[in-house]
Amino acid sequence: MKKLLITILLSLSVTTLQAETINLECDALAHKMVTRFVEEGLLLKSDKNQGRARAISAELCQSVQKSAETQHKKAQTSALQNWIFENRPDKPGNKRLKRLK
């Protein structure tokens, strides 16, 4: 029980620390994307739509970043649950292995 409480407290602190780890630098990426569009001739240098294209790029990047953060949190939770389950000495697989010794 003590080990379980320590594990939960540790996971909560690690999750809090890692909550801001995914940063795709969306503004810089949007700027690069618009620059590439201009270089490829898809947007004109003097085009008023550059700002809108930059905003759309940043918006899409931010949605990808949120999705990545959500997937990361789910993976952390799953890993923690697996770790807790695997460290149970009384689970059926461990009992079977003890009988084989």
Shape descriptor reads rod-shaped
- Relative strand content: under 5%
Terminal Cα span = 27 Å
Structural class: mainly alpha
- Could you report the average pLDDT, rounded to the nearest whole number? 80
Number of strands: 0
Q: Helical region count?
A: 4
The major pleated sheet works out as: none
Helix and strand pattern:
HHHH
Task: Tell me roughly what share of residues is in helical segments.
Answer: over 70%
Low-pLDDT residue spans: none
Radius of gyration: 24 Å
Please characterize this protein's 3D structure:
There is one protein chain. This protein has 101 residues and is mainly alpha-helical. Helix content is 77%, strand content 0%. It has four helices and no strands. The longest helix is centred in the last third of the chain and has 38 residues. It is rod-shaped and about 75 Å long. The mean pLDDT is 80.
Quickly list its features:
mainly alpha; rod-shaped; 77% helix
Short description:
Helices cover 77% and strands 0% of the residues.
Helices and strands in order:
Elements lengths: L1 H17 L7 H14 L9 H38 L5 H9 L1
Helix pairs in contact: 1-3, 2-3
